Amino acid sequence: MDSGLLTKISNVVFATLLAIFLLLFPAGSLNAAPKALVMKPFNQLSDQSKECAACHKEKNPSIYAQWGRSKHYGANVGCYECHKAEPGDADAIRHEGVDIAVIVSPKDCGSCHVQEVEEFDASHHAKAGQIIGSLDNFLAEVVEGSLMLNGTSPAAVNGCWQCHGSEVKVLENGDLDPATWPNTGIGRINPDGSIGACSACHQRHQFDMVQARRPEACGKCHLGPDHPQKEIYEESKHGINFYAHVDQMNLGSAKWIVGEDYDSAPTCATCHMSATRELAVTHDVGDRISWTLRPAISEKIDAKDKALGKETKSWEARRADMQNVCQSCHTKSMVENFYIQFDSLVELYNEKFARPGKQLMAVLQQENMLTETGFDEEIEWTWFYLWHHEGRRARHGAAMQAPDYVQWHGLYEVAERFYIELVPQFLEVVEKAAHNGNQEGAERARAVLADILARSEHAWFSGNEPDEVKRARKEAQEAFKARYLDDSN
Length: 489
Fold this sequence. Notes:
53% of the residues lie in helices and 2% in strands. The chain has 489 residues and is an all-alpha fold. Among the domains are: 32-83, no CATH class; 103-200, no CATH class; 253-329, no CATH class; 340-453. It has a two-stranded antiparallel ribbon with strand order 1-2. A two-stranded antiparallel ribbon has the order 3-4. The chain is globular and about 85 Å long.
């Protein structure tokens, strides 16, 4: 074919394609700012929700827009369907001619989401608001608190309760007590008697799955010096992969099955809640956890229920479910080896530091060497830091594969706290008691410490290591220095 004719045909085809492209995508449209939300007609909404939406569109445009992007909107679930109340409800108010409640509780959500609410009610999250009497609450209410907000400490109101939840109280005039509301704490105790706040994880009013599946959703509460799960996740290979390949995570998938809809990395939701090819979604976040890493001494997750004679899912079954998640990406042998490593770290912490530390604190209490007031003596702060901060960090670091949290933010600080603070402070308290006449109690206390330090794991500190062990360590240290030609380390 003549080359000139080919050129003419190519030009015609190009011009035609360009015209079609410009019709589909007018000039500037690809880089234009997002258009205003276009809502479908309200023809299937209830009359009450139509009235709510018409008003709130003007008064609260962001809430209106968020709702317009939600699945609730697509299912014709409007303001009234979630906020409606009976006149006799504890938090019911008369608003624009209808009875509503400001708080949408799990009881309200449960009218549609029955299974999710039942699973949540069985979870540890549901108990998070029951913190009265805990050491954490004593710190916030008493040690940190003084100037009161309706009889409560602002430290607790603005701190603890915003994650744990609190009892939301209704004032005599029907208003919600500002000391207890707003509050989206996960274990919130609602005026209708239900427990929890679905909006702790599913942010109002869009309730977007993408937002709930990202690690930041959990990071509102699970971060900081005593439970830094979000920071631990970010250090782990899982977190590194998530942020590097978030565009491949398919976070908007309706079913979102790991190994099927995505494979770049797990998030918090993946491991603790979301579906696998064999497991269904669960809203009981502890359903796949085998250890409890929260208390001073870790125990298997079912130990307390077993001791009380309660029927409960065994820790072995929970671990099997978690391993099912792991095996969506990893081999069975790799998963099993990880758990051997993890278990060994928890046992090391328990046996070398936590049980001995608890023994030391217990004997001081038994021999009346400490006052009944909590946190008024230095050794009480030391012990609290050891298990509540450093000990938790080490255990959670091992659980979620963050080596720096196991070592430098974890067991290194546990060891320093135990040997250099707890033991000397223990001896100081005992000597003071002996000086004040409690000689027998002092002898019993010293015997407890002596028994602990006589154990092989503490031999380096007591100076009782075998000579061959000392010699081998010295040779290794000298070899290290020679290798790096530096004797400063």
